Amino acid sequence: MIADGVEDEEKWLAAGIAGLQQNAFYMHRALDSNNLRDALKYSAQMLSELRTSRLSPHKYYELYMRAFDELRKLEMFFKEETRRGCSIIDLYELVQHAGNILPRLYLLCTVGCVYIKTKEAPAKDVLKDLVEMCRGIQHPVRGLFLRSYLAQVSRDKLPDIGSEYEGDADSVVDAVEFVLQNFTEMNKLWVRMQHQGPAREKEKREKERSELRDLVGKNLHVLGQIEGVDLDMYKDTVLPRVLEQVVNCKDELAQYYLMDCIIQVFPDEYHLQTLDVLLGAFPQLQPTVDIKTVLSRLMERLSNYAASSADVLPEFLQVEAFSKLNNAIGKVIEAQPDMPTLGVITLYSSLLTFTLHVHPERLDYADQVLGACVKKLSGKGKLQDNKATKQIVALLSAPLEKYNDIVTALKLSNYPRMMEYLDSETNKVMATVIIQSIMKNKTRISTADRVEALFELIKGLIKDLDGSPDDEVDEDDFKEEQNSVARLIQMLYNDDPEEMFKIICTVRKHILAGGPKRLPFTVPPLVYSSLKLVRQLQGQEENPFGEEESTTPKKIFQLLNQTVETLSNVPAPELALQLYLQCAEAANDCDLEPVAYEFFTQAYILYEEEISDSRAQVTAIHLIIGTLQRMHVFGVENRDTLTHKATGYSAKLLKKPDQCRAVYACSHLFWVDDQDNIKDGERVLLCLKRALRIANAAQQMSNAARGSTGSVTLFVEILNKYLYFYEKGNPQINVAAIQSLIELITTEMQSETSTPDPAADAFFASTLRYIEFQKQKGGAVGEKYEPIKV
């Protein structure tokens, strides 16, 4: 059925075009022969094709445009006729003898334009006559196109200021009256279209009406172009008349489109000075009109106007634009109780953008907007509408983008209350936006109160908001989120130790509530921030004023011990061990032996009880040895205990090469350059000999299992340790031991059972070159190395 209807319409259009072209042909012939009567006859017959009711507006427009082009030629002919002495008044009378009203009126409008150009009658009188006569066509589509033609041909002939058709002082008023009257009649016809035809085709008619909206809006555009319409005339005549028509038509499509037209075509300063009148119309519109979009566009235009020049800002203050817009939004929401949440948030988002542009210094205004939005959303709980939550993110991001400073946003009391309406995922998005703003602007947050407020805002990243962990979270996203929190923790700083300690306690309170999955990301930056504070306090006397409340390194270390201990619930023993050793080193620098010993004890317990993976054990034992070697705070007894344990762990590693390397590393625990009391040459030699025995055992095992002795890398590494301690002056390391080790390596490399290893060969060759280099230095070093034969 629909296909048949479309085909029929195409046929009717083709027939209409054919009839129009045929009569146009005869009209042209009459024009060429200056035959006025035939020209009028055939032009009337041509225009009769526009009397059809069978075409949709879209198809009718095609037919109309062809007729319009022909009427341009007819107008040129009428001009020529008047030049040849034909009376325009007679011509004006003559065209009114056409048999049908529609052709008659098209011809009348065409002659009327020529009449105005001759200036034989005031333009206002001719225009008034034409606009009144057009009332004769009440069919919506035909009437709209006729009046559109009148508007088109008369727009350059209005008696405006500076126009050649300007008459007495009231001429501008007449021009405005003409356009307003035409607009009013066109709008009535446009609205009436919805009642033409059966109810089942209402949707189709609405679509057709939407296609015709620009015909009506063109009148408002013409009004906006009239030079003589100043602010007073706009305020007293134009706006009230247009709004009266908009409100009274009670049609959703017309009200939405025309309100939008008003906002777009008239100047911003006019809107500002007539805010009361304009905003007063919004609550009177139909409940189904999309007011949020129109009102948002108004606020956007005013925001851009305010941003265009600082000189216009006093105007906004003078007319109290903020309070008027705020009140208007409240009334609109009350007038439309069914307005969706998205609409409410969009309105307040636009108002906030307006406020930040016009009154950036008035934080109370921004907070008032957020508060009003919170009030309207109260009782709705977490929002499930994706568009609404995205709009809240836009609303909350606006102050961050404007001030580039989260500290300013933290002063807005309603800011966190708005975030309560976000679901868990969107809360994370907003928290990430806040952190990115801090990073980008390098914002310094330096008080515990502000840190508390900030962490309340970003709690979506710090803990599971719904109380239960979400197992469906993407692992990479989760890591990125937690790393951003870690970076944030590093940026929290205050020069005052007391305040910094409060900040650390505040952060600790929040991150410990985040659950075991987050702790490996958030505990390390907290520990390092705390150690930074310890370094700041280093060397400070213990409680210089005897105040129990003052921050001391010991107090921080107690907090650190409890904090690192939480990682055992994760479990993350390797990370905890690293942090214990970092804390031990800091305690060493503060000369706090009991504290350092306790941290080492905790590290050893973790190593024994929690770290079972052989690779993790190797890494851990080297960390332990490296940290212990730098310790100077321990007494003989404590150091011996810890050293004995470390060497014991080294010897118990699973793989022989790992054992060997850990044991020779332990040699450094007995010889520390900058500590004269730790230079035990014998125990160094014992470690190196033990390492040699383990290396030898590793070769034998390799030979038994694979039939080859394997690489000599371990022996070369041990040779380097021998050379190191020999150079440092260890009396137990002599030339004979080094010489025998070099010969052993040479023999092993030449053995048939050894496995070729280019890396080991290069390492050994490099070691021998080093010995030669030291010999060539001369002096004490040269003498020391001279006896070694390579």
From TrEMBL:
Protein name (database record): Vacuolar protein sorting-associated protein 35
Annotated localization: Cytoplasm; Endosome membrane; Golgi apparatus, trans-Golgi network membrane; Prevacuolar compartment membrane
Record GO biological process: intracellular protein transport; retrograde transport, endosome to Golgi
PANTHER family linked to this entry: VACUOLAR PROTEIN SORTING-ASSOCIATED PROTEIN 35, VACUOLAR SORTING PROTEIN 35
Keyword terms of this UniProt record: Cytoplasm, Endosome, Golgi apparatus, Membrane, Protein transport, Transport
Entry GO CC: cytosol; endosome membrane; Golgi apparatus; late endosome; retromer, cargo-selective complex
Keyword Protein transport (UniProt): yes
Pfam families per the UniProt record, alphabetical: Vps35 (PF03635)
Predominant cellular place of this UniProt entry's protein: cytoplasm
Recorded topology in the membrane: Peripheral membrane protein
The keyword RNA-binding belongs to this UniProt entry's keyword annotation: no
Chain's role: Plays a role in vesicular protein sorting.
Transmembrane region(s): none
Entry similarity comment: Belongs to the VPS35 family.
